[in-house]
Amino acid sequence: MATRAERPLYVRRFSRTERTLHWVHASAFFVLLASGLVLYVPRLSELVGRRPLMKDIHFDTGLAWMAAIALVILLGDRRGLRQTLRELDAFDRDDRLWLRRIPRPQGRFNAGQKLNAALTASFALLFAVSGLLLWYGERDNRFRFASTILLHDGLMYVSILVVLGHLYLALIYPSTRHALRGMATGNVRRDWAWEHHRKWLEGQQPPSA
Amino acid sequence: MSSPADEPKLYGRRAFLGVSALGLSSLFWGKSAWDAVNGAVTPLRDALPAGLVPSGWRIYTISGHMPTFQRATWRLRIEGLVEKPTSLSYADLLKLPRAEQVSTFHCVTGWTVKNVHWAGVRFRDLLAVAQPGIEGTVLQFISAEVPYTDTLTLRQAELHDAMLAYEMNGQPLKREHGAPVRVVIPEMYGYKNVKWVERIVVTDQVTPGYWEQNGYDVDAWVGRSNGYTS
């Protein structure tokens, strides 16, 4: 019989599939952002030059990113991902209160993380569609819209703001930055999880019971 | 007992679908909406340090390195169907009648820079030096950025606001904008506005330019070419 004192210090928050998805997306995002800024900001364009190479890097990373995401979903734990998707989709009463800044116990994802996930997914879709349209539009008039580049740029600006917020919470803000350990190793401290994701911890089976 | 208020709401998918629908539909309304609010953000953009916020320009190049302008050795050659093949130094060029204009620059990919102040030489004045023959009806511009070329008919080049520009916004043309000289023809999309021009060949036929070999229209009228109809 496990006593409270014997309980493991850490609990598993993210599966291998979830972590792989996160890091594939994050690395592709930063390569795309860096190469995109070189194509976009005149001063950087002049400094770095090599536009044809930068264009290839940007475009090929975009393709590789889509392929990698598809591959992780195909080869990973799809049942687990479906469960994650259900968690991210549902906002219960506590989530809705939390969004109104009323502190309420949260599940494995808090309401802000759920919104971030939804936003990230739709931005990924919109980046991919507008990026492909920019590429096709250069080859075929029928795919050229005057607003494509505005959409691609607008997404870039909003993404930078969202990512800065995300990095602040994951790397700097003292009470939340432990979450990064969860995304790196899969495990988080039980007392931290109790503080931030109590409903999730309560719903877990006690180990070795 | 759980009341309806306690039931989970599927906000996740709503947020995903809502943002996606907004983004996709913006392909059809984005530009007009942006044009409507653009005036409001311009003062804000002007207040921020230059270089921090993109000026609206994007620098498109087709080769690995931008050509470098050497003032002492640079020459603009005008040749082909002309009476007097000519080679102008930068100083010679500045001595030709100077023209100035404020015009809007449109890129075929959808971005626009308004109120660009250009100074340079009208093609009529430039060509007067070399004296094109009667059969010379087309100008081919050859860029130092190999293999970029493009053409304008003489009629197009003699539009009232077309020029070979050597100044932009009160300063000598910067490297990324085609130093020392570029074509400016505001009625046409940017790819006809050849940068880093080093040779003008007067000819009697239109040769498809760099982007035209890749499917762009030879006559790139703003709003009336390349799939645009407005």
What number is the mean pLDDT of chain B?
91
Overall 3D shape of chain B: elongated
Total strands of chain A: the figure is: 2
How far is the N terminus from the C terminus of chain B?
Answer: 60 Å
Helix content of chain B: 10-25%
Biggest sheet record of chain A: 2 strands, antiparallel
Total strands of chain B: 10
Strand order of the largest sheet of chain A: 1-2
The proportion of residues in beta strands of chain B is 15-25%
The gross shape of chain A turns out to be: elongated
Number of helices of chain B: 4
Q: Give the C-alpha Rg of chain A.
A: 20 Å
- Quaternary structure state of the chains depicted: heterodimer
Structural class of chain A: mainly alpha
Structural class determined from secondary elements of chain B: alpha+beta
Question: Biggest interface pair, residues each?
Answer: A-B, 51 and 48 residues
Secondary-structure element pattern of chain B, one letter each:
HEEHEEHEEHEEEE
Notes on the protein architecture:
The complex is a heterodimer of chains A (209) and B (230). Chain A is built from ten helices and two strands; from the N terminus they run βααααααααβαα. Chain A has helices at residues 16-40, 42-48, 51-75, 78-89, 93-99, 111-137, 148-172, 179-185, 190-196, 198-203, and strands at 10-12, 187-189. Chain B has 230 residues and is an alpha+beta fold. In chain B, the strands form two sheets. In chain B, strands 2-1-10-5-6 form a five-stranded mixed β-sheet. At the A-B interface, helix 2, helix 3, helix 4, helix 5 and helix 6 of A face helix 1 of B.
